[in-house]
């Protein structure tokens, strides 16, 4: 099993454990590389992300931990750069580019906060048309690399977080397939890898990782690249379900690669 994880959150944002506790857990697991990826500051919603001051404290703390544990673990300092982040993503070892919100007029609507908020947003802004909601999401997602300068494409189909079993929409519907496929193909052109993200599985929302198997199948057919990540918010979920993710990849003809840092 792959023993490295680059999508990891701590108490600097919405994670439950301090960074050093995560490092110690990674060492205990026999991990080879660990990358922290705090949520970038988003002025539209500061409830979950790093503050401006906290971002500076975060980079300092990870640098100190890198030095302290350098003989036991390779520690990297990354950022999960949101589509609507207001701070540049310079100076990090890597950048994960993600879309968490839909911009509708002057409102920023989260797609991954709760099933209730997701359903309310569809009713309020789209008249209950979940496909129109997905189309807007994927229009933004198609430009996530250009917007965030990402090295890794985060949870591509996050819009489906609460849609296990087709709860809100049919992921085989032509409108959904067209929107997702157009965004996927645009991002494949960038050459950036997609993360296979097990975060919604570990939190009980999905039974398969992002992207969904049909989308992974297209990534494989188009020669795309993938990297495993847990989107861990607790030390206990580092490398969560990586063995299952590797088996899924093998069944689709994909081979997860070692993540290439920008520095």
Helix- and strand-based class? alpha/beta
Estimate nothing, just give the exact number of structural domains: 1
| % residues in beta strands | 15-25%
CATH superfamily: Metal-dependent hydrolases
Helix content, binned percent: 25-40%
Mean pLDDT metric = 98
Architecture, CATH level 2? Alpha-Beta Barrel
Taken in chain order, the helices and strands follow as: EHEHEEEEHHHEHEHHEH
- Tertiary shape: globular
What is the alpha-carbon Rg in Å?
A: 17 Å
Spatial separation of the terminal alpha carbons: 25 Å
Instruction: Write down the CATH topology.
Output: TIM Barrel
Low-confidence stretches: none
Helical stretch tally: 9
Strand sequence of the main sheet, in spatial order?
A: 1-2-3-4-7
Broad CATH class: Alpha Beta
Give the total of beta strands: 9
Report on the biggest sheet. Answer: 5 strands, parallel
Verbal overview:
With 263 residues, the chain is of the alpha/beta class. It has one domain (4-252): Metal-dependent hydrolases (TIM Barrel, Alpha-Beta Barrel). The protein is 37% helix and 16% strand. The chain has 9 helices and 9 strands. It has helices at 19-29, 52-68, 115-126, 130-141, 144-148, 174-188, 199-202, 213-221, 242-252; strands at 4-5, 33-39, 74-82, 94-98, 101-104, 107-110, 152-153, 194-197, 226-229. A 5-stranded parallel beta sheet has the order 1-2-3-4-7. A two-stranded antiparallel ribbon has the order 5-6. Strand 2 (33-39), helix 2 (52-68) and strand 3 (74-82) form a beta-alpha-beta unit.
SSE layout:
Blueprint: E1 4-5, H1 19-29, E2 33-39, H2 52-68, E3 74-82, E4 94-98, E5 101-104, E6 107-110, H3 115-126, H4 130-141, H5 144-148, E7 152-153, H6 174-188, E8 194-197, H7 199-202, H8 213-221, E9 226-229, H9 242-252
Parallel strand pairs: 1-2, 2-3, 3-4, 4-7, 8-9
Antiparallel strand pairs: 5-6
Helix pairs in contact: 4-6
